[in-house]
Design a protein that fits this description.
By secondary structure, this protein is an alpha+beta fold. It has helices spanning about 5, 30-35, 40, 50-65, 115-130, 145-155; strands at about 15, 20, 75-80, 85-95, 100-105, 135-140, 155-170, 170-180. Helix 5 (about 115-130) links the parallel strand 5 and strand 6 (about 135-140).
Length: about 180
Amino acid sequence: MKIEEIYGDLPRLETERLILRKVKLDDVEDMFSYGSNEEVSKYVTWNTHKTLSDTKEFIDFILTKYKSGQVAPWGIEYKDNGKLIGTIDFVWWEPNHKMAEIGYVISQDYWGNGLTTEAAKEVIKFGFEKMNLVRIQARCFVENIGSARVMEKTGMSFEGIIRKGVFIKGKHQDIKMFSILKEEF
């Protein structure tokens, strides 16, 4: 399976409370709302958005990825109010090895409601059923208890801590590794 076959036209996915869809320029204010929150950006690889221009630049980057058929995020839209409340994606995908890694971010206003888990389960299902994956993994900073909990609730197993596994925001970070195999899903 080729990346372009999936990402040439990113499919819309739906859960009970969410629509996973392409990000669009109209999402700039919703994305800025959570992207500018330092609590939200504390445990991700990107820096806190300081201005709407930062957010627009990121959305332009996503739109370029859509146009070129590259791996790119789904926007997480909350059905109750139509707001973009986060993104979720395969941050990398190795089709030849049938492995990928998911990553996600969600607005602090929606933490603790199971929405990230709901989105992640749908993306994991898509990975196993449509992308022919055999392994899906996810990583988080050791301190990111909420993200680790999401991984556990999706059925992922904790594999261990990768000491100083990434260099982000000026320092090496210890990260937890989780994964789920197709036969475990």
